[in-house]
Amino acid sequence: MKTVFVKPASVERKWFIIDAEGKVLGRVAARVVSIVRGKNKPLYTPHQEVGDFVVVVNADKIAVTGRKAQQKMYYRHSGYPGGLKADSYEKLSARHPTAPLENAIKGMLPKGPLGRKLAKNVKVYAGAAHPHSAQNPTAIDL
Questions:
Q1: What was the pLDDT predicted at 2?
Q2: Cα(142)–Cα(35) distance, integer angstroms
Q3: Is residue 29 a contact partner of residue 37, using CB atoms and an 8 Å limit?
Q4: Among positive and negative, which fits the CA dihedral 19, 41, 37, 30?
Q5: Which residues of 48-65 are buried (b: 16+ CB within 10 A; e: fewer)?
Q6: How many CA atoms lie within 13 A of 3 on its CB side?
Q7: Is 100 exposed, middle or buried (0-12, 13-18, 19+ CB in 10 A)?
């Protein structure tokens, strides 16, 4: 098999908008990652950035199933001994409404330079307002 290399100039990149209100966290994140990586295109190449841009609105109204709101924990470490901090989904979403969705999306992206580049193509907003109306994003219904 030959390795496919797509010229960046030949890739047509679109903007999409997803309303996350009432949708399940993991399902929204999986759909966003699929679009950002370009898996919905025939030009998909795993080692190149061929995906589209995604704007997610109403991230503060996203749903989690079961008792995840109380039981799901998010960890971070300060780098110092004993510096492990833990927050539940409720506390994290109260402090940073977009953080749970952003963490889920980043966890599904590849690790390394490509994943960091693709993470910049996702814009997550807590409310319904967003500054990307000039790009005429196409609405995606999940």
A1: 84
A2: 12
A3: no
A4: positive
A5: bbbbbbbbbbbbbebebe
A6: 5
A7: buried
How many other CB atoms sit within 10 Å of the CB of residue 33? 23
| pLDDT tens column, 39-51 | 999 889 999 999 9
Task: Report yes or no on whether pTM surpasses 0.70.
Answer: yes
Local structure of 73: helix, strand or coil: strand
Domains and CATH numbers, the chain: 12-64+97-140 (3.90.1180.10)
- How far apart are alpha carbons 63 and 10 in whole angstroms? 38
100-106 contacts at long range (C-beta below 8 A, 24 or more positions apart): 100/25, 100/62, 100/64, 100/74, 101/20, 101/25, 101/28, 101/29, 101/56, 101/59, 101/62, 103/74, 104/25, 104/26, 104/29, 105/29, 105/32, 105/33, 105/36
Which residue, 2, 15, 8, 4, is CA-closest to 42?
4
> CB of 92 within 8 A of CB of 76?
no
User: Looking up tokens 């966003």, which residue turns up?
Assistant: 32
Tokens standing for 123? Answer: 């814009």
